[in-house]
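REQUEST ID: PR-0412
SUBMITTED BY: lab tech R.K.
PRIORITY: routine
TASK: structure prediction, single protein chain
INPUT:
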Amino acid sequence: MTQEEFKVKAKKFNERVWVGLIIIGIGIVILLRNLNFPFPSYLFTWPVILILVGVVSGIKERFKFGASWIMMGLGVFFLIMKIYPELHLSTFFWPAIIIAVGLSFLLKRDSMTVKRKKSFQTNDMTQETFTTEHTSMHDSSKDVLDAVAVFGVVKKNIYAKNFKGGEVVTVFGGSEINLMNADFTGEIKLEIVNIFGGTTLFIPPHWQIRSEAAAVFGSIEDKRAEPAGIAMDKILIIDGFVMMGGIDIKSR
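STATUS: complete
OUTPUT:
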């Protein structure tokens, strides 16, 4: 077993441990409640469930700024509204949503920029070491998807044969991403954030899809036709957050 494989297995083991402890804790709390333990009434409301979903999602993504923080923030916001209705926090709901989405978008772009710079550096070093015939460097940015739709619609066709995933942000709008002509080998991640918006993905039916996205008052549906065969070396992970929206996966 290589060191990289050991790290991956250790990470998954730690995730299972924490998620298992959270589930056990929930079970104990429910048991104590059935035994008439004096818990606060708000402890069993949907904002608390939203916070827990955010915590579990955060454990899986190591609490990087993203969907997990948005869910936990919304859960805390609605929970405070329930506990202290006299504060009239509903006045600040939409500004808080817009600010959270903006911060998430900015920080994600910074992260993507760093990754792309590292990719350029790696490609440059590889070419200088192993080849002297080609002087032009491959533009890896074309292999990474970056789509944003705010109060509008974005449509993109991806033709990259070394597709590396990317991100799609849709707020009060729609996005349509066509990956039917794209290709890759291995495992890649596509992060989607939909808030009052929808994303339609056109993906070849033989690609494997693993959904790790969280949906709150939303849906994630794979509507592709049954494939003749499954490609074992093509795994697309869909991560992110959907609220009041949806992700539709189709193959035309």
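NOTES: The chain has four helices and eleven strands.
REVIEWED BY: pending
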